[in-house]
Please model this.
Amino acid sequence: MNEKPNNISEMAKVYEKNTRISIPSYDTLFSMVQSYFRMKLKEKEARILVVGAGGGNEISAWGPSNPQWTFTGVDPSEEMIRIAKNKTIQLGVESRVQLIQGTIDDLPTPNYTFDAASCILVLHFIDGIQEKLKLLTSIKENLTSGAPFVLVSAYGDPESTELQDRLQIWKSFWLVGGAESSKVEELVTKGIMKISFIPENQIQWLLAEAGFTNITRFYSTGLFGGWMCHA
Ligand SMILES: C[S@@+](CC[C@H](N)C(=O)[O-])C[C@H]1O[C@@H](n2cnc3c(N)ncnc32)[C@H](O)[C@@H]1O
Model:
């Protein structure tokens, strides 16, 4: 389990594998979001904003089967954007995808309005409540009224036994996935415990403060939760 990627495609493979160990229902999450977006967007043409597009998993999951959707993905990581670009070409969806290396502040046009948005596995990398709120507020401002928005993030009170118990369950995914227990402890101390956990009620408060309504948790797995809401 000591995988040290030495090139971009190797890095992408490790990311794909490790994400599915860390979040065993990762692929199902994308199907669930797609179902809801389809129901809300109907058959209309729609513009989807993907915040933290990473290696292109949202676009791969939703692009080919929804030809009426176009995507704008933002991500500050040059490597991840390169991986995402390659994926869009492999899938033949590149004409419907715009990828921007940067954050939501780097969207080309101010007041650009999208019909739906996602922010999957990003918020826990943003330190500080005000910075998290700034991101969610910017997403809200870039959406049409009523547009669906999905947020997926690690959550929990870092001081609580509830989070410690979930951490034990999360560790078991890695052990069964073949990781040595010393490696799993390292993942906890150098990785997981360094991310910015906040309790669920604070996540819901942030979404409401940013202006979202109908905030509903529809997904929970190990350390991560998913909330659907509307602009
Ligand atoms: C764990 S990956 C998730 C990527 C993708 N959403 C997925 O599920 O595969 C987290 C991504 O968030 C990106 N990221 C970090 N800070 C960000 C920010 N302020 N705005 C947008 N993306 C950010 C990272 O570069 C990274 O690609």
